[in-house]
Amino acid sequence: MKAAFLSEFITSKSVLAQSAVIYVVVALVIGVSMQSPVALVACLGAMTPFMMVFTFCALDGVNGWERFRATLPVSRAAIVASRYANILAASFFMLVVGWVIALALAAAASLLPFDAQAVASFSREASDPAMLLCAGAMGMGVTLLAASFILPFALRFGMTKSIRIVPVVAILLLPAFIFLMQQVPDLARMLSEASLWLDRNVVLATVVFMAAALAVYAASCAAAVAMYRNKEL
């Protein structure tokens, strides 16, 4: 597992560094334009897992890296687990980076060419660092769920083919989801109560949501291992 993790990280570190810079710039533009450090952290947290899926899977087709990696003295299960671990590690790293940048930007807002409204907005939202971290974690959790759905198909069929398969599967699952929602009595009231509870318990809600997202991510990894074992390279 360690060998697979390091081999993938070492071969892609230059691309990862470039991607990190791009993500930070995009998040900065969004955060500054919205005058919101919360938006900055949430954007970076949400963007990283989803884009890392495409970055790593795109690298599989470069110079036959996927076939070469399969010849290394590591199991296919370790190859899949290392892919999931690298995406998760990059996501947590960028979440912390976004959080630090947001706090630093808020602290220096009065020294930057921002108007008084922007300075006040940055100071107000950054006054609670835990809320900033929760915003980023919520964003990361949402796209980790999306990555959990995409990765097994991407690893099994390749990114080009999975882009055609994933939307079809999503469309087929949509009626089932709508049907299940219709079976829940007083759904509107439950959503309203959940929203009120979320406002009062943001940190706890974030912890619960992230735990659920990570559980789904782990289950996705297990499914991807089973699917990848049957892939011809």
TrEMBL record:
The chain crosses the membrane at residues 15-32, 38-63, 84-110, 130-151, 163-182, 202-228. InterPro entries: ABC2_memb-like. Keywords: Membrane, Transmembrane, Transmembrane helix. This is ABC-2 transporter permease. It comes from Slackia faecicanis.
